[in-house]
Design brief:
The protein is α+β, with helices and mostly antiparallel strands and 416 residues long. The chain is built from twelve helices and 23 strands. Helix 7 (126-135) packs antiparallel against helix 8. Bound molecules: adenosine monophosphate and glycine (GLY).
C-alpha cells in the first residue's frame, strides 16, 4: 500500500518512521515533510493546508491511506473532501474536529454532558467582557480565543489590568483574526497536567501509553508557552486507576455526547487534563496526535500502526490487540534562538551523524545544498527509548550536545 502523511513537523517524522516499519507499506509520501522525512519517504511540495492538491495527488497516485498530522486541515474538512471522493483517510471529519476548532463548542458540550472542566463565560463584545472583569476579584484568570491560534490563543492573566488588555487584544485588535471573534473567560485551575491520547472509532476508545509534555520555554515552567519543549513517557502521575477514571468520566461521556450531537468522532482524541484538588478536569481537546508527545509514544508501540489506523477507519478497533513496550521514552527539543517568538532560519546543522542510541526526529529542518538547515522554531527532537525515563533522558541530553547550530536552545529540566 502507498500511504500519504500530511504535515511536516516532528510528529509527522515520527508517524512516517513508525509507518515505515509496516511490512504492508510499499511507499510513503509526506506533504510537505522535512529533511528527516526525506530520508524514509518521498516529500511532496504541497502545503499541509492545501486540500485540493493533496486530494488530487492521492487520487492520481492510488494512495491507499492518508494520515493527517495537524489540526488545521482536519478542522477545514480534509476528511470530508477525501471521503466524498471515496478515498481512505484517517482522522475526524469537520463536524467532529470542532472539538479542537471551537473552544466555545467544547465548553458547551462539556457542561451539557456534565464532564468536569473549569467554569467559564463566553463573550463576543469587549464591553460585556470588560464589565465582567470589573466585578471579578479572583486572579489569575484565563482568557481563550474560540478558534485555532497555533497554540497561542490562551492567556493566563495575573491581574485585572492584564485581563482587560487580553480582552481588548482579542476582541478589538483582532490579534488572532476571526479565531478571536468570540472568547472564553475561564476559571484558573492548578495542578499537574496530563496528556491523554486515545485511538477512537465509532464504538471504542483505546488509550495509548501516557506522556507528559513540557510546554513552557523556560526551565522550572517559566516564560512563554510553546508547542512543547520535550516529553517523557510514561507520565509518572499516571496509573491504571487514573486512566479508568478519565476514560469513564471524561473520554467516554465526551464521545457519547458527540454521538448524541450527531458529530460522531473517530481518529485520535487528545485530552489535555489538569489534576486539580477537585479531581481531573478537562483543559482542552485536540483532534490529532500531540507534538512532541507522539515522539515518545509511538517508539513504545509494538503493534503495526497501519493495522490500527485501518481498524479505526473500518470501525473494528475492538478487534485489534494493541501492544506497548514496557520501556520508557524521552525526547528533548532543540529549538531556534528566540522561539516561540521570532527566530532566524536557514542556519546549518552539524553533528547529526554523530548521534548513537537516540533517534533524531526532525521538526523545523529542510535540505539545504548538501546540508541540513533550520527552517522552524522547534528544529529537532532527540528521542531515546530505554528501561527508565532517567536513562532515556540522559542519552537524549548527551546526544543533544553533539548536534550544533547557531542559537540552539534546550530546556535542561525535561523529566523533572
Ligand atoms: P490549552 O491550549 O487550552 O490546553 O491551554 C494551554 C495551556 O494553558 C494548558 O496546557 C495549561 O497549562 C494552561 N491552561 C489552560 N486553561 C487553563 C486553566 N483554566 N487554568 C490553568 N491553566 C490553564
Ligand atoms: N504538545 C501539545 C500539542 O500537541 O498540542
Amino acid at each position: 500500500m502507498k500511504v500519504l502523511v500530511v504535515g511536516g513537523g516532528g510528529r509527522e517524522h515520527t508517524l512516517v518512521w513508525k509507518l515505515a516499519q509496516s511490512p504492508r507499506i510499499s511507499q510513503i509520501f509526506c506533504a510537505p515533510g522535512n529533511a528527516g522525512t526525506a530520508s524514509i519517504a518521498t516529500n511532496l511540495a504541497i502545503a499541509d493546508g492545501n486540500i485540493p492538491d493533496l486530494l488530487k495527488f492521492a487520487r492520481e497516485n492510488e494512495i491507499g491511506l492518508t494520515v493527517v498530522g495537524p489540526e488545521v486541515p482536519l478542522v477545514e474538512g480534509i476528511v470530508d473532501s477525501f471521503e466524498t471522493q471515496g478515498l481512505r483517510i484517517f482522522g475526524p471529519n469537520a463536524r467532529a474536529a470542532i472539538l479542537e476548532g471551537s473552544k466555545v463548542f467544547t465548553k458547551e458540550l462539556l457542561y451539557k454532558y456534565a464532564i468536569p472542566t473549569a467554569e467559564y463565560h463566553r463573550f463576543t463584545e469587549a464591553s460585556k467582557a470588560l464589565e465582567y472583569l470589573a466585578h471579578n476579584t479572583t486572579y489569575p484568570i484565563v482568557i481563550k480565543a474560540d478558534g485555532l491560534a497555533a497554540g497561542k490563543g490562551v492567556l493566563i492573566s495575573l491581574s485585572r489590568e492584564e485581563a482587560q488588555q487580553g480582552v481588548k487584544e482579542m476582541l478589538e485588535d483582532k490579534v488572532f483574526g476571526n479565531a478571536g471573534d468570540e472568547i472564553i473567560i475561564e476559571e484558573f485551575m492548578t495542578g499537574p497536567e496530563l496528556s491523554m491520547l486515545c485511538f477512537v472509532d465509532a464504538h471504542t476508545a483505546v488509550p495509548m501509553v501516557s506522556a507528559k509534555d513540557y510546554k513552557r520555554i523556560g526551565e522550572g515552567d517559566t516564560g512563554l508557552n510553546t508547542g512543547g519543549m520535550g516529553a517523557i513517557s510514561p507520565n509518572p502521575l499516571y496509573d491504571e486507576e487514573l486512566e479508568q477514571f478519565c476514560l469513564q468520566n471524561i473520554i467516554e461521556p465526551t464521545l457519547e455526547g458527540m454521538r448524541q450531537e450527531g458529530r460522531p468522532f473517530k481518529g485520535i482524541l487528545y485530552c489535555g487534563i489538569m489534576l486539580t484538588e477537585g479531581g481531573p478536569k478537562v483543559l482542552e481537546y485536540n483532534v490529532r496526535f500531540g507534538d512532541p508527545e507522539t515522539q515518545v509514544i509511538l517508539p513504545r508501540l509494538e503493534t503495526d500502526l497501519l493495522d490500527i489506523f485501518e481498524a479505526v477507519v473500518d470501525d473494528r478497533l475492538s478487534e485489534i490487540d494493541i501492544k506497548w513496550d514496557d520501556d520508557a521514552a524521552a525526547t528533548v527539543v532543540l529549538a531556534s534562538r528566540g522561539y516561540p517568538e521570532a527566530y532566524p532560519k536557514g542556519l546549518p546543522i552539524s553533528g547529526l551523524d554523530e548521534v548513537v542510541s537516540s533517534v533524531v526526529f526532525h521538526a523545523g529542518t529542510s535540505a539545504g545544498e548538501g546540508e541540513v538547515i533550520t527552517s522552524g522554531g522547534r528544529v529537532l527532537n532527540v528521542t531515546t527509548r530505554a528501561h527508565t525515563v532517567p536513562e532515556a533522558l540522559s542519552l537524549s541530553y548527551r546526544n543533544s550536545e553533539l548536534i550544533q547550530f547557531d542559537g540552539k536552545t534546550i530546556r535542561k529540566d525535561i523529566g523533572s
